[in-house]
Structure formats: structure tokens, C-alpha cells
Amino acid sequence: LDSCIHTLLIGDRRFVLQLWDTAGQERYHSITKQVFRKADGVVVMYDITSAQSFTAVRYWLTCIQVRPFSAI
């Protein structure tokens, strides 16, 4: 599990950008779902060299759609 936190100042507003890379690993699914609940946005990526990675995108999109994003 890799993560990165970066604070952005845009105009007079401060934003915290948190990036989490779980590499789609099964053992991180529960953590990822918890992060989705508090997220204001989600980026789903896949490995272009892995058909399995591309297929898993549907699973992650379903997980994201379970939580209603009011700010997106």
C-alpha cells in the first residue's frame, strides 16, 4: 500500500490531496472501501498490460457508485 499526501493552495483555498495506491490487491479491499466513504473524488486506473486489471475496473466502479458523491 503506497500513499502520498500533498497540500495545495489554490487562490486563498487550501486543499489536501491524498493518493492511495492499493494496486487492486484483495487484502486492501476493505481499506479502500473505507477511504471511498470519505473521499470527494476517486480516480480508477488499470495496468494496460493486464487484462485482469482492466476487468477489475468494473468492480471498483461498482464500489464507488455505492457511495453517493455529492461533491462530484
Automatic annotation (TrEMBL):
Keyword set includes Lipoprotein: no
InterPro entries documented for this protein: P-loop_NTPase, Rab, Small_GTPase
GO molecular function, one term: GTP binding
Keywords: GTP-binding, Nucleotide-binding
Top-level taxon: Eukaryota
Pfam families: Ras
Keyword Membrane: no
PANTHER family: RAS-RELATED PROTEIN RAB
Record protein name field: Ras-related protein Rab-44
